[in-house]
Design goal:
Layout lengths: L3 H6 L8 E4 L2 E4 L13 E4 L4 E4 L5 E3 H8 L3 H21 L12 E2 L8 H8 L11 E3 L14 E7 L5 E8 L2 E6 L18 E4 L2 H6 L3 E3 L11 E3 L3
Parallel strand pairs: 11-12, 11-13
Antiparallel strand pairs: 1-2, 2-3, 3-4, 4-5, 6-7, 7-8, 8-9, 9-10
């Protein structure tokens, strides 16, 4: 399991949190924070371990998270499930119906200063959804109507994790690619329609607000449990 997205998700609990290398995050140690004014705690992505060079405390990720805030362990479980979903639908993308090699790579695997990492942050895509964002060297591989250009790709999934289209960003320009004749709806695999849910024609807002779908054709997508999201 790649834990980078998860450690970023809980970083609001960690003082002076920052990435110091491709494999390592630094922050104030939660065990000796009162004795030290400088960040001395590190989380290592390859070993999935925390270590403090001042108090010499070493912990596995689950132990560290439990000591930080036991309630965050639930988020770790959710993140693990989402990571498994990611593996499942990336495998679907390799099936024969995707004839072309579209050469996608996860944004989370890129260097912090990579242009598509920077674009992801500039678009203000929440950290917890970075696992769904991919970097493409050539968006025209997805659709011949798109000029040859690199960009971001977010697959649009059904509840069964079937890909029905893509949300693409060529710099700050959003391009929707629909692989079906039905309206393109993003968030079906994330939203619980048994509860009150929302719909918006702003893709980034659908990620920021809980239980929210994205569709440009909002009036033909709504049902009785759905409300239009108004900011």
């Amino acid at each position: 399991m790649n834990t980078e997205c998860y450690i970023i998700d809980i970083s609001y609990k960690l003082q002076n949190f920052k990435k110091v290398s491709s494999n390592k995050y630094q922050f104030k140690c939660i065990y000796c924070v009162k004795q030290s004014s400088k960040p001395s705690g590190y989380y290592f992505l390859d070993s999935k371990k925390f270590h403090c060079y001042k108090c010499k405390t070493s912990k596995q990720l689950k132990e560290f998270v439990y000591d930080l805030d036991p309630s965050l362990l639930k988020n770790l479980s959710i993140h693990t499930n989402k990571y498994l979903e990611l593996k499942e639908f990336t495998e679907k993308m390799k099936k024969p119906r995707f004839v072309k090699d579209i050469g996608l790579s996860s944004v989370s695997s890129l260097k912090y200063w990579h242009k598509h990492q920077l674009l992801t942050r500039k678009l203000d895509i929440p950290n917890k959804y970075h696992y769904m964002v991919f970097s493409s060297p050539d968006l025209s591989n997805l659709c011949e109507l798109i000029p040859k250009h690199s960009g971001l790709v977010i697959p649009v999934l059904t509840n069964q994790l079937l890909i029905t289209g893509y949300i693409c960003f060529k710099k700050l320009e959003q391009i929707d690619i629909n692989l079906t004749k039905e309206p393109l709806i993003f968030g079906e695999h994330l939203v619980d329609k048994n509860l009150k849910y929302y719909i918006t024609n702003n893709f980034i807002d659908s990620l920021k607000y809980p239980n929210t779908l994205y569709s440009k054709d909002i009036y033909n997508t709504m049902d009785e449990n759905c409300t239009i999201l108004r900011n």
